[in-house]
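Agenda item 2: adenosine-5'-triphosphate complex prediction
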Amino acid sequence: MKQPVSIRLTQCAKSFENGTRALQPLDLEIRPGETLVLLGPSGCGKTTTLRMIAGLEFPDQGGRVMFGDDDVTDLPIEKRGVGMVFQNYALFPNMTVGENIAYGMKIRKIAAQERAERVEKLLEMVHLQGLSHRRVDQLSGGQKQRVALARALAVEPKVLLLDEPLTALDAKLREAVRSDLNQLLRKLGITAVYVTHDQGEAMALGDRIVVMERGKISQIGSPQDIYYCPANAFVAEFIGAMNQVDGIAGGGRLQLPAGSLPLPDNVADGQPATAMFRPEDVQVLEAEDAAGDTLRGTIVNTFFMGDRTRFEIDIGVGRPVIVETSKRGLWQPGQGVALNVPAAALVKVPAGKEAS
Ligand SMILES: Nc1ncnc2c1ncn2[C@@H]1O[C@H](COP(=O)(O)OP(=O)(O)OP(=O)(O)O)[C@@H](O)[C@H]1O
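Presented output:
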């Protein structure tokens, strides 16, 4: 494998001919060898950013794309040394697995012997040994995506670009391919950019995650940073489920109609304040076991999810509090309970950076 390269985008904006402004001027540095995930809701500009790195789109005037010390801004895809994997595989259906993987090497006039050797190595790498002569249309979705990955890697790209590669697979297969992909990316140490709208995938695969919203970067950080220290309310709500409870500060607590919660910051008595916390950080108690001002509520819904159960608890403020626990379901709709939220569980969002 070649030395991994960094990727740097500076002031890369993108407007399309129909007037859509897909990206605001964007600065982004991807470190050599890291897997960077672009995550965000539909239409936020993830694919446009990836296609700009690929050389399938070009930034508006003034934007620059660098691979290491090379300015690739004006180079088309075939001159950039990138490997791409798409959601829909984009394989040649009438070719065999081996022919698909070797295709790029053939175009680059790599000798037949070396092609064959590399195909064998790649098949092993993606766990498809022995399938070289199988026609691609006789493969499962997961196998097809492994072929697509092998084909992208066959030309020894400087950079691997993956656009929602697991979206077409069913849940079980997605997890299996994701786990293999994770190991492979770590082993290869190639600089990789991965687009997804699935936060589980982003957390599992990304060394760092870029959360995008409406053509802008909302936050860049490790999966832990993004989950525990969201930069704004948009990130907090987009990643995982988040409870957001509004009340009035009083006596160092957030006062609510049915009890109180810890306060996120030093808010003066009488001022409005908001507590944000994750469903897995709430402890549900029998109402009679709780101390005087512990928040009380009524179970309104339960969802058994196999490995955990989700409860929705009405605390008299409109939106119910969501609680998740891996304990076996104890609570039934209609039951009165108390909620313990430790102060350490509060997620703090920097003031003035609320999502609009
Ligand atoms: N060729 C194009 N012409 C006009 N508008 C486009 C074009 N490609 C993308 N857009 C628009 O640019 C915006 C960003 O699109 P992009 O595909 O980058 O988003 P995304 O985050 O990848 O979304 P998704 O997850 O739905 O693929 C969207 O509003 C989209 O409709």
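Discussion summary: The chain has two domains: 7-238, 244-340.
Owner for follow-up: CH.
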